[in-house]
Amino acid sequence: MSMSQIEVTVLYFAAASTAVGLTEERVALQPSFHLNALGDHLISLHPNCGLDKVLQSSQWSVDAEMVEDVDQVVLKGGEEIAIICPVSGG
């Protein structure tokens, strides 16, 4: 990570974890990175694994709070970001 980057922790749950083969990952980003661009960045880090399809139906949480509008969230570094996949039950 260069001095001009920030770092966040991404938590992968359920189908997201299965797709990328990880439960957690530290990701370096440019400063003032918008959450709405994180999905595309993660897909570029993990191409051809199906993460793109998982993210289409998933939600995001930042520091254990669900995000309603990803366009409004600017990451400053140090955040814990979770990909919350839909859950079905019976």
Automatic annotation (TrEMBL):
Annotated GO biological processes are: Mo-molybdopterin cofactor biosynthetic process
- What keywords sit in the KW lines? Cytoplasm, Molybdenum cofactor biosynthesis, Nucleotide-binding, Phosphoprotein
Post-translational events: C-terminal thiocarboxylation occurs in 2 steps, it is first acyl-adenylated (-COAMP) via the hesA/moeB/thiF part of UBA4, then thiocarboxylated (-COSH) via the rhodanese domain of UBA4.
**Modified positions (Glycyl adenylate) in chain numbering:** G90
Write down the InterPro entries for this protein, in alphabetical order.
Answer: Beta-grasp_dom_sf, MOCS2A, MOCS2A_euk, Mopterin_synth/thiamin_S_b, ThiS/MoaD-like
Q: In which pathway does it act?
A: Cofactor biosynthesis; molybdopterin biosynthesis
GO (cellular component) term, any one: molybdopterin adenylyltransferase complex
SUPFAM superfamilies listed in its UniProt record: MoaD/ThiS
Q: Matching PANTHER family, A to Z?
A: MOLYBDOPTERIN SYNTHASE SULFUR CARRIER SUBUNIT
Q: Which family does it belong to?
A: Belongs to the MoaD family. MOCS2A subfamily.
List the protein's name.
Molybdopterin synthase sulfur carrier subunit
- The source organism is Serpula lacrymans var. lacrymans (strain S7.3)
